[in-house]
Amino acid sequence: MDTASFWQRLRQRKMVEWAIGYAAVGFAIIEVTDFMKDAFTWPTSLLRVITVVVLFGFAAVVVLAWYHGEKGHQRAPTSEIVLLAGISLAGFTVAWWAAVTTPVEAVPAAAAPASADLQLALFDPSTAPYSVAVLPFVSIVAGEANESIAEGMTEDIITELGQIEGLRVISRTSVMRYRDTEKSIPQIGAELSVGTILEGSVRMQGERVRIVAQLIDVATDGHLWAETFDRDMKDIFAVQTEVARAIASALKGELAPQQSAVVAASEMPQADPETFRLYSMGKALANNAAVADRERAVAYVDSALDRDPDFGPALNVKVNLLTPSGMELVQDADVVVDSAMAVARRAVQHSPASADARSALAFIRTFRGRDGERGEADARDAVAANPNSVQARLRYAQILYSRGKVEESRRELAAAAALDPFSAVVHTQIGEMAFAMDEQVEAERHLQRAIELDPQNAAPHVALGLVYREQDRDEEALRELETARRMRPDDPNVLGSLGSALVAVGRAEEAGRITEELERHAEAGRPLFGVIASLHASMGNTSQAIDWLRKGAGDERRSIYLLSPRYRHMFEALRANPEMARLLDSLGYRIASRRPPPDSLRPPRPPGQGSRSRSGDRR
Questions:
Q1: CB of 463 within 8 A of CB of 432?
Q2: Which segments of the chain belong to CATH 3.40.50.10070?
Q3: CATH topology of domain 121-269
Q4: How many whole angstroms separate alpha carbon 512 and alpha carbon 499?
Q5: Looking at the whole model, is its pTM more than 0.85?
Q6: Side-chain half-sphere of 581: how many Cα atoms within 13 Å?
Q7: Which pLDDT tens digit goes with each residue over 11-49?
Q8: Which residues, in sequence order, are CB contacts of 566 under 8 Å at separation 6+?
C-alpha cells in the first residue's frame, strides 16, 4: 500500500475526526475526575486508573475507527476482535497495577556515615522525604476537660505519625504555639519547615466522639486528604491509628516495619470516658516545666491508673513525669528513680513499641545500674522505634555524652532541634553542650533563646549563669542564678550552682552556708554527693570533694547531677589527682570536654574586686 493510498483510507474512515473527538472527551474526563478528587477527597489511585483507561481507550477507538469508520463497513473481522481483546487485557493489567501500587518519588540519597557507630539513630530529620506538623486539634465543645482531651489527641496523633518511616513530624512543643493563631497555612509551614499541615477538630458527646481531620499541602494550600470519624470513646486510640495510616497513604509513606508488626499484633488500648479524661488532663499538664503543674499531672495520671492500672498510655505519661534527664532540674531526682524504674517496666510491658517508655528504661539503667553499654544500645533501639520522639533522642544524647561520645551526642541534639525548633528544653541542652565544649557564644545564644521560649524554666537560667561565670560576668551570673533560686528555692542543683558562683566573687561565707545545708540533707538520706563535691571543688577543697565523690561511688543511687555537661568539666579538671581520676572512672566518666580548667577552681578574688572582663574573653 503506497502512502497516498494509506492517507486516502484514513480520510475515508474519518480516523482524524475520531481521534480528535476522543482526545477531547478523554481530556475532559481526566480533568473532571481530578477536580472531583480534590473536592470529595477521592483516593489518588482513582485518577491514575481513569488515566490508564482513557489512554488504552484511545487505542481501542483507533482500532474501531479503522474497521468501522468507513460507511457501510460494519462487519467485525477476527483481526479486530483479537486487537480489541489484547488492548482490553493490557489496559486492565495496567489499570490494576496503577490502583494497587504507590509511585515512589526520587529523593536525593543522604551521604553514608563513616561508620555504623556514627549513624546515630537510623534517621536524620533533614533527609526525610516528607514532613508534617499537626496543629492543635480544636475542641468544638468548650471546657477545660474537653480542651485537654483535644490537646492530648493532638499529641497522640503526633506520636502515631512519628512511627512512619521517612516522615519528619514536628513535636508537640513547637506546634502548640499555633493553638489560636491567625497565621495562614503557608506561613506556619514556612516557620516549621514542613510540606504538609494536619488540622482537625474534636466533638465529644456522651460516650461518642467525632474527629474531623484534614491534611493540607503547604505549597498550594490545597487539601490532600480529609475524613470524618464517628466512634465510641473507648475506641479513641484505634481512631488515632486510623488517622496516622490514612496520612501515611496520602503521603505515600509506610509504617516502619517493626512498628507495623507491633500494631498488627497488639490490641489497641481502650478506656472509658472518665479514664480517658483524667489521662488527657494529666498529659496536657505533664509538658509544663512548673513544679505545681507537674504535680497536678501526676495526680491526674494516678487517678486514671487507679481506674485502670494497665492503661498503657497513662503509664507512658507517668514514665516521662518520673524519669529525669541529667540536664533537667528535678527535685530529688535520685529518689524518684526507683518509682520510675517500676513504672517504666510496666509501660514497656503494656506498650512494647513506646519509644518514650523504652528510652526511659534505657536511661534509668544507665543512671542506676551504670551499664552504659547496654543503656546506649537500648536507647538507640528506642529512637529507631520512633525516630521523631524528641524525648527519646534527648535521653539518647545524654547517654552518649556520658560515655564520651560527644559528636554523636551533639548530632542527636541537632536532630531533636529539627523536630522541635521551639522547645526550651532542646535549646537548653544544646546550650549546655556548647558550654561544656567551651563554645561560649553558641551556648549563650541557645540559652537565651530557651529563656525567651519558656521564662519559667529554671534550667536555662542556671546554665546561663554558669556561662556568665566563666566569662567573668559575675553580676549577670548571680542575677540568673538568683532567678533560678526564686523558681526552685529548694533544688540542690540550683543551690550548688549558686554556691560555686558565690565562691568566685569572694562570698565564701554564703557559699559555705549553702554547702552545710546540702550536707545536712545528704546526712538525712538525700543522695547529693555530686552537688556537694562540686561545691567543695569550687572552693578548692579537693580532699573533701574526693570524700563526697567516694561516698557517691559507694552508693547505688548514682547522682544524676554528675551526668550533666554543665558540671563535668569541673571534675575533669581535678583528674591530675590520682584518687579523683579513679573515682571518676568508677562513676563511668569519659573525658568529654575541650574546656581548660574552669575559673571556679582558681583562688577566689577578694570581696569587692570587680569583674576582669565584660567581653567574654577568657583569662
A1: yes
A2: 121-269
A3: Rossmann fold (3.40.50)
A4: 8
A5: no
A6: 4
A7: 666 777 777 887 888 788 877 777 665 555 565 667 778
A8: 327, 432, 435, 436, 462, 463, 466, 497
